[in-house]
Hints:
This protein has six helices and no strands. It is 85% helix and 0% strand.
Amino acid sequence: xxxxxxxxxxxxxxxxxxxxxxxxxxxxxxxxxxxxxxxxxxxxxxxxxxxxxxxxxxxxxxxxxxxxxxxxxxxxxxxxxxxxxxxxxxxxxxxxxxxxxxxxxxxxxxxxxxxxxxxxxxxxxxxxxxxxxxxxxxxxxxxxxxxxxxxxxxxxxxxxxxxxxxxxxxxxxxxxxxxxxxxxxxxxxxxxxxxxxxxxxxxxxxxxxxxxxxxxxxxxxxxxxxxxxxxxxxxxxxxx
Length: 240
């Protein structure tokens, strides 16, 4: 697992501790009178810390989105960390309500439970995370994620080899298709030439045929003319 993902867990720990400190300060502040100097001083400190808490929580969200989009962590780890961020978001709303003393119930819960809220609320989200991650330390989770990512890398490498072979096969098929296209182009060219020659010879035959028919007509005319002459001469010679 990359150092970026480890730093995310460290940032989450820091943000969770800040939330716990905030709850303790709110508890301490609410033990004092609203008109007291201590109440006013703690309120100012809490406002600054709550703004810092919100900024750190937003940074956790953005870093989780970047880690998810870049596939530096598995989807299961993304889901687990999203639950953790959602838990902190819930605690942020609880802090806001407690700081504003909205209703007697929130003030009562704050006074009774105090800073134990963050400790007992399972800040790492283990109540909602997958069973195989429960009772595991962060180091064990990191090692598990490293193994999963290593297996994914092997699978991706194998897939890359398969895609590479398929790409080479596609290139070979493309070369064969190009060669066949060239052959077909040559055949089409020869067919066109042969077609032109056939048309040319057909025209010649048509012309010759017409000339032959004309010659036959003239031959027949000459023969008939000669026959008429012969027929006319023979009777004349008999009379003589």
